[in-house]
Write a structure and sequence with these properties.
The chain has about 270 residues and is of the alpha+beta class. The chain has helices at about 50-60, 65-70, 120-130, 135-150, 190-205, 215-225, 230-240, 250-260; strands at about 1-10, 15-20, 30-35, 40-45, 80-85, 90-95, 105-110, 110-115, 160-165, 180-185, 210, 250.
């Protein structure tokens, strides 16, 4: 009842899972990630134990070995669908014979995409194409979900999406290595909303470069009018982004977050102070 991508980017030292589905709160079920260990997507009558047990197995086993161990002791294995990547970037996927059509997967370099109850294989092909592009890892993962959705996605419709990413621990990252854990549990446009809050998250935590406000003045003024804010400072302060602006410059991710928000219905009708 879901489509997902499990992937790693050795250059960025990130590993993660992104998922979308016509199943409420899919992010609470499918994605499991551990830094420098690997990642797992468990879906289609998901066996919840595949997540924690699989990550423990990946500490000492390959993706393929881990999958075999998990499936060998599961009497309902033919109902399951799983995607796994190990710390070496090796991937494996499994689609049980009792998964509902269309169900399948595509394995690529450092990624695997899988889904069930899809409109067709073209959903997975579109996702795989995005994963082969030269884009930042998180952007590539969300683009893959969007491409899958545009190709037909879950044949029952849209409801939830999530992204779970692990990387090197630092001042913003807990020791477990989770650098991004975002969920849209119930929304008519879950992938679009996930993209929006992903931009906001990155703006809050990672927006270190700057662009000139004057070069983007018209776009900024129009966005602020749509959102009913008197000044850029007021908006940035309300979003916890005031550290990313000064009198003449703004972080590019912060700017992107403003522009995306101005085109969204999420904040429509809220009272401004």
């Amino acid at each position: 009842m879901t489509y997902s991508v499990v992937a790693m980017d050795p250059a960025e030292d990130l590993v993660g899972v992104a998922v979308a589905s016509r199943f409420i709160a899919v992010g609470s079920v499918v994605p499991w990630v551990r830094y420098r260990t690997g990642a797992i997507a468990t879906q289609s009558y998901a066996n919840y134990t595949f997540g924690p047990e699989g990550l423990s197995l990946l500490s000492d086993h390959s993706a393929r070995e881990t999958l075999k161990i998990l499936l060998d002791k599961d009497p309902q294995r033919e109902k399951r669908q799983v995607g796994i990547i190990d710390k070496k970037g090796k991937v494996v996927s499994f689609t049980g014979k009792e998964c509902l059509d269309y169900a399948g997967s595509i394995e690529g370099k450092n990624f695997t995409v899988q889904g069930n109850i899809l409109t067709g294989r073209n959903v997975l092909e579109a996702m795989a194409t995005e994963m082969e592009k030269d884009l930042p890892f998180i952007e590539r993962m969300i683009h893959a979900l969007k491409a899958g959705e545009d190709a037909g996605g879950d044949s029952r419709g849209k409801q939830a999406a999530a992204i779970l990413i692990a990387g090197k621990a630092n001042e913003f990252v807990e020791s477990s290595g989770i650098v991004m854990d975002l969920r849209v549990d119930d929304n008519p446009e879950p992938v679009r909303e996930l993209a929006r809050i992903s931009k906001l998250w990155q703006a809050v935590h990672w927006d270190t470069s700057r662009v000139k406000i004057a070069d983007n003045g018209k776009k900024i003024d129009l966005a602020l009018r749509k959102l009913a804010y008197k000044s850029l400072k007021d908006w940035a302060t309300a979003r916890g982004l005031d550290h990313n602006i000064n009198d003449t410059e703004i972080g590019p991710l912060t700017l992107a977050s403003l522009l995306i928000e101005s085109k969204s219905d999420t904040y429509a009708g809220l009272t401004r102070k």
